[in-house]
């Protein structure tokens, strides 16, 4: 991370904390496609700021990818910061804006980061609407948020402790390897077969760069994907943004229980 990136994250954290008279947060949660309605009403609201009002952030571009940072109190009295949207690598502004939220959460004192996303499923057994815990990832973006000789260990990038905690809430949760492509186009059927051959279970356009930045910052990471569609070519249907929205709607009760149970345990 550059000194400039660290300073901007510090400034954003100070602005956010100052807006609500908080001295620190305990954890942060990033909502991906299909997750926002499930997170509605989670915890006791403290307040909310538009991301665009915080140093280093700009408004997200995709409809349904909201752009607020909310502070809320969890049932155990911890303070959580909830990002209702994220910046994606495919927006073309480079890696720094993609991981700025993670760095801001770390600068604000968070020790745990929950990253959620909507993604394509590579395993035909994952029907749309299935949440899957991320066990590991393949970063196929060719990018990294790290600068210089920053040798970060990713052996357990996605915390086993947090995955076990999530399974206490929902023992039926599957676990898989998340493959990040740069996007914004979805994969071709040949790319989907490649990702399957490489050991992937899930394909998406987020999360891996954020996880790398989180591990650099010392955050413990829980990644949860909502499979919203099968990878291209697995089913004869073309991919549509409408099915992404619909899968989120259908999965809402299960995701809400999962997030609620997690907040009771984190
Ligand atoms: I939602 O099938 C969603 N995001 N790369 N592939 C990729 N990203 C996605 C997909 C998908 N579905």
Question: What report would you give on this structure?
Answer:
Helices cover 32% and strands 24% of the residues. It is of the alpha/beta class and 266 residues long. It has a single domain (3-263), classed as Nucleoside phosphorylase domain (Rossmann fold). Strands 5-8-7-6-9 form a five-stranded mixed barrel. Strand 3 and strand 4 (79-83) form a beta hairpin. The mean pLDDT is 94. Bound molecules: 8-iodo-guanine. Residues 33, 118-120, 181, 183, 186-187, 203-205, 228-229, 231, 239, 244 line the site of 8-iodo-guanine (8IG). Residues 33, 118-120, 181, 183, 186-187, 203-205, 228-229, 231, 239, 244 line the site of 8-iodo-guanine.
Which keywords apply here?
alpha/beta; globular; five-stranded mixed β-barrel; 266 residues; Rossmann fold; 7 helices; binds 8-iodo-guanine
Question: How are the elements arranged and paired?
Answer:
Blueprint: H1 3-19, E1 27-30, H2 36-39, E2 44-50, E3 68-73, E4 79-83, H3 96-107, E5 112-121, E6 130-139, H4 160-169, E7 174-180, H5 189-197, E8 202-204, H6 208-216, E9 220-230, H7 241-265
Parallel strand pairs: 1-4, 1-5, 5-9, 6-7, 7-8
Antiparallel strand pairs: 2-3, 3-4, 5-8, 6-9
